[in-house]
Amino acid sequence: MKRLYIAAITLFLVPIFAMGFISLVDQDATVSATENRNLKEKPSLTFQTLFDGSFAKDFEEYYSDTFPFRDAFMNVNQGVRSLFTWKGEDDVTIVDPGQIDHIGAGEHLQDGDLPDSSSSESSSSSPSSSSAPSSSANASSESASSQEEASSPVEVPDDTEVDNHGGVIIVKDRAMELFSLNEKKLTSYTDTLNKMKTQLPSSTRVFNLLAPTSVEFYSPSKYHSLTQSQKGAFDLAYSQLQDVIPVDAYSAIAPHTDEYLYFRTDHHWTARGAYYAYTAFAKQAGFTPVDINDFETGQIDDFVGSLYRATQAQVLKDNPDYVEYFLPNVENEGKYFKSQDMTDGITIHAVATKVNSSNKYLCFISGDTLLSRFTTGVKNGKSILVIKESYGNAFVPWLLNHYENVYVCDPRQGTINIPSFVRDNNVDDVLAINYAFSACSGFNKYIDKCLD
After folding, report:
1. What confidence tens digit (pLDDT) does each residue in 364-394 have?
2. Where is 300: in which H helix or E strand?
3. What is the pLDDT of residue 4?
4. What residues have CB less than 8 Å from 200, skipping those under 6 apart?
5. Strands 429-435 and 383-388
6. What is the dihedral of CA 250, 254, 258, 264, to 10 degrees?
């Protein structure tokens, strides 16, 4: 019996010590081929990071990302998960990826993610300094757009401390997350916006834009019973607003669903999808939107996004997206800041034409940062503050055509005092832009901590 105990203990401890030893001596991977993303780098230990708890959190994420044989274990996990995948008719697959984070922590470009200054739109640029894309790039963009008309876009979000809203539906080569309305959290969201309005100067206009996701437009009609109406959720939210101006992006997007409005492998909308939402905002804000055909455009190829990472579906990996971009028509200079006083700014790009990161969506305003400012050549004295998660990133560049100062805050990245910021910077308009899942998943708690 004693030998049996020794054998059992040995079988238990030897793999643990072996894995620990391997993790100490092996070379850390920097990219996951399975997930198509950059892995967490080893964090630096300082007194500040040690005592504020961030080192422990970052080290846990780093070790999780660089665990020995991680990709092999993930492939095994995907094989097990495939047993819980339901294959329906018409090339439709329903996947349960587990609990999905509908708000997320956000992501921004790191050093080296931009190839060089000549390969992206200058942060202090004019339309004349931007080179037009080659005819071949335009041709591939047109052919890809026409190809999109025959198939369907995507959606999978982000949320911390959130309920599991169900699975992801994959229709041919397009993935979409199934939406579920949480009325209590949606009401908390609108309550926060109403509270924010009361704390701002009476002259400051506050807008709310709720962005629909691709499941509203591209899931086959017979599968609509698997999801709830985002349009109904938006109508409910807008009915609860008090002195906050609703922006009906849904109705502006719906007539254009034969265009490339949503990614197939990622949960975001494209710049083109964001454009139609921008036209709805322009209508409410009282200005004329710039015609989409007046912009120099191009594309970044080989983008496989968040829905692939959530499902690991091979059909998504085999059919990557591209990121269509539109270069701003006005001179602009962008910087992001780590605090409200906006000192020691770091240069960012409204639109980058090349991105080394596997997350090509980061080409828009360099991703998610606490506070950024774009100063433009519009020179009309008008300013706007955009409060957003990542859905706002593709939207912000369109605003550069109408405001002298465009401020952007992602409250997931830290805290600013929104009322004092608006007063100190003479902000005319405040726009809260969120997509359906984050509005129903507690995003308001990030805004709440930025209010008085």
Report:
1. 999 999 999 999 999 999 999 999 999 999 9
2. strand 296-303
3. 79
4. 206, 418, 419, 422, 423, 430
5. parallel
6. 30
The SS3 call for residue 283 is helix
The mean per-residue pLDDT over the stretch 429-445 comes to 96
Tokens 């054998």 -> residue: 7
* Lookup result for tokens 């950059």: 38
- Own/partner contacts of 226-232, CB < 8 Å, gap of 24 or more, are 226/94, 226/166, 226/169, 226/178, 227/178, 227/179, 227/180, 228/179, 228/180, 228/181, 229/181, 230/179, 230/436, 232/181
pTM of the predicted structure, to 2 decimals:
0.76
- The β-bridge partners of 78 are none
User: b/e string for 108-138 if b means 16 or more Cβ within 10 A?
Assistant: bbeeebbeeeeebbbbebeeeebeebeeeee
Do 213 and 155 contact (CB within 8 A), yes or no? yes
Tell me: pLDDT of 267 over 60. Answer: yes
Task: Give the DSSP letter of residue 132.
Answer: P
Cβ-contact 374, 333 below 8 angstroms: yes
Mean pLDDT for the chain overall = 81
The backbone torsions φ and ψ at residue 381, rounded to the nearest 5 degrees and listed phi first, read: 75, 5
Q: Return the DSSP state at 95.
A: E
* DSSP single-letter state for residue 155: B
Q: Which residues pair with 364 in a beta bridge?
A: 351
Per residue in 221-230, pLDDT tens?
766 656 788 9
